[in-house]
Structures are given as structure tokens and as C-alpha cells.
Amino acid sequence: MIAKMFPNKRHIFTMNNPESVKIDGKWVEQDDYRWSLENTSNPEDKTSLRVSPDPRGWNGLADYDMAIHMAALNYTPMDFHFFDDFLTISRDEAVRSMTFERIYQFLGRTSLRDYDRVYGEGEELTLIVFDRQTAMRMQAMIGCGEPTFIDLGIEKLQEQKKAPYDPKAAAVGANARYRANEAEKERLAADEATPQYEGFGARIWSTGADKEPTYQTYAIEDLFRLMERAGEMPLKFKAHCSQFREGAFSDLGAAEIAGNLTTSKMLAFDIDDSIHKPEAVSDYLASLGFTNFIYNSFSHKGFPYRFHVLIPLSRAVNEGNYRHIFKVVRALLESRFGKKDLPIEAKYGSINKWIAMPCDSKFGQGFVIAKRRWKNIMTKEYSLLDVQDYLTRQVPKTPEQETEAETKADQTALESADIDAIVRDIAAAAAPGNRDDAFKQAGIALVYTHKVPDHEAIRSLNAAVNLFGKDRGAAKRLVGSLNRSRQTSLTALITN
Prior knowledge:
The protein has helices spanning 2-5, 77-87, 91-107, 115-120, 132-142, 167-193, 220-230, 278-287, 319-337, 387-391, 404-410, 416-429, 435-449, 454-463, 465-468, 474-495; strands at 11-14, 21-23, 26-28, 48-50, 66-69, 126-128, 200-205, 214-218, 234-235, 243-246, 248-249, 261-274, 292-296, 305-317, 355-356, 360-361, 368-371, 374-376, 381-382. It is α+β, with helices and mostly antiparallel strands. The chain has 3 domains: 1-151, no CATH class; 200-392, no CATH class; 416-495, no CATH class. 26% of the residues are buried.
């Protein structure tokens, strides 16, 4: 089939190895599955090259304009249990984030990143995968054309009939792909022209009003230690927080960032009122190969979680490329955790934003997570976000708005056991001197975040009043107060 459709077209391919069989009590490895285009008797007719399903770092295949991925990258049930229990990665996310990433890396060994040559020579880059779901995912990640079904004559593999060809839609799609390719070329050209520097340049304002910030270059490990020490500093007022920005500045004598910060090697995210633990976010970023640093915001009081995320980059980027990578990573995070459940401040997509440093705030809920990922543990080379890789990725499209029915379906009522678990988790995380605020946060989690009915919220809070040091009437008073606050806010919005 491939030989007929693409005669004499050089390509790389991958497939699974046969399972070993037991012969006379011994396990014997079987010969590789045969691929006829690889095993031709005439060397001049050989157009195929067998490649590992995990060829990350293999850079000698850029002259191939075709790739065929036929390997089933399956994980065992034990793997999925490990991902879920220890890394808080669901089965679906394991498939999306790891299986698709491995396929993307395989396809990326070809001339996929050599768009100028392919386009200039009028060549067509052909990528073949096993199923439509994978094809659609690769289209979103790469920004290529609409997938085409290859009919192998097997009835079970027949796809549904396509809608009639729409020339207007095809033209729109072609124009969109052209614009995406042109934008990618501009990003890569800007990256090539961006001056690079050693280490990480840390500019620190002692407070937001500081007019003479300091500047020093750090190795990544020293920068982590600096942040960890800052996290031990007790602070009573948010205005006293030190502010931080990594990058190269054109004028170190000026305290401003806008128009002064030219490049940066550090993504910064600000996340408020997340229902997901920062440890889960850190583990997910690590699963993508990102060394990351996560710490509490000054106003973090427990659940819901408020924290900052720093992701070091492999190269310095300018403002436009910073914004692009921010959007791609933000889309990955929102796909994994949900846009509503992990609210990310969009304004930090600008390179011109400083971010508060770690501190031990008066709320007593400070934490610091330094997640080190290694590219080479022997040489202590960190695994950082690969800038050039992420500049070639397209920002995933925003999902269509949910219908009213879908929205209601997502708001399935929690079971009593789940509600009680939320309250117990918040109580367990509360510092001894901060149980009053923890009690309020538990109420907010039930009434605001999870939309728990009042009677269920009161029941659950009443069952745990001893954990918070409260009397039996405290739960009813708290829920009533939260409802009045919500109604007051709504009235204010209507009357303004």
C-alpha cells in the first residue's frame, strides 16, 4: 500500500518488537516484524529506515520527508496505578501527555523542523500514524493539514463518511496553515537573533517601592537556594514582599521593567484559588521534562491554593517568543487540570511582569517545591523547557464553549464522603494558630468552589468543628455569612 501510494519515497518507520516466546523452558526473542520496503534484495531500492519509537536526540534524519509510526505505545495497568497514585496523572492524561509526546518526537526526527527547505523545494512532508485520534492530536501540535484516511480494505477500520468537500473551508484552512508556518518561521528567526547569556540574571526589588534593585547572575542551583532562603523570611505585610524578575536588562540603573527587560530565561505563572495541589502541578511539569520551582503566594491560606510557578528555559527569548511559549504551556496546564480549576493569570504572558519572591507569610501556610529534572544526572545537567521545540508548537485552539447541558452535567453533586474529605484535608493542612481562617476556607471550598447545597455544607462542617476548635453553631453562621456575601456582591454588580 505504501509503495503504491508513495513510490520510491524515502521514509523512516517504527513498529513494536515481537513478544518473546518460551521454547524448551527458555525465553527466546523473535525476529523483527518484516517491512517489505526495508528488506528489498536490491540495496538501491531500499527506501526505509527502521527507527526506535523513542528517538529523542536523534538528529541525523532531517533529510527524510516521510515518517510512518505503527508502534503501539501501551502502558501496563501497574504503570497507570503509579501515574495516578504517585504523580496524580490520570490514565487519559498519561496517554495525551506521554504517548502523544513520544509520537510527536518520532515525527519530529524528519524534515518537520526544516520547513524552509521543504517549502522551497516544493516537497510534501508526509506523516502517517495508526488512528484518527492520534492524527488529530498531531495536527493540533504541529499545525499541519487535515488528516487523510488510508483505506486498507479492512471493514473494522473504515471511518465514517466525510462531509462533502468545501472549497471555501479548504481555502481558509490552507491560509491558516500558511500563516501558522510564517509565524513559526518568524519565531525561529527571532530566536536565532536573540543574544544569549550564561546563567540566570536575577533582578530583585526589596519591596515594590524599591528604586534601586539589585542584579546578579546565578547558576540555576544557586538561584534555587536563593529562593529557598527567601521562603524562610517571615513577613506580616504583602507590601513588604520582595519582587523578582529574571532576564537581561538594557539599563541596570533604571528600576523599571517595561522597555528595559530585553530577554528572559524564566517563565513565571501566577495561580490563584486552585483546587489542585501545587505538588500535582509540579509533578505534571516534571513529567513534561521541565525543572520547576513552585512556592506560596503571600495571601495563600490553605485551600484553595495560591502559588507562583517558575519554569527555567533552555535559552533566552524575546518578548514575542516568551508570550508564545507561555500560551503553549498554559494550554497544556489547562488541558491537564481544567481552566476553572487552575486559574492562571493571563497578564503574566507579558515578559514585563515581576513576581513576588517566596516568603513565610503571617498566614503560616508557606511552602517551597524545587522539582529538579535531570537531562544527565552524572554531570548534573538540568532538563529545562526546550525553547526551540516549543517555538515550533502551535498554541492549541480554545475548546468550544460548553452547552448548558454539558455545563450542568459537569456539576454533578459530590457524595457526602467526598465533601467530608475536602473539609478534613483543609483541617489537616491548617497551622495550629490558623484554624479560624482554615474553617472559613473550608466553607468557601464547599459553598463557592464546589457549589455544595447549604444543608450538606453545614452537616459536613458540623462533623468537623472539633478539628477547627469551633462550637456547633459555627457552621450555620459561616454558611449564612458566605451566602450573604455572595448576594451582596451580586446586588452591587446589578446596581452599579
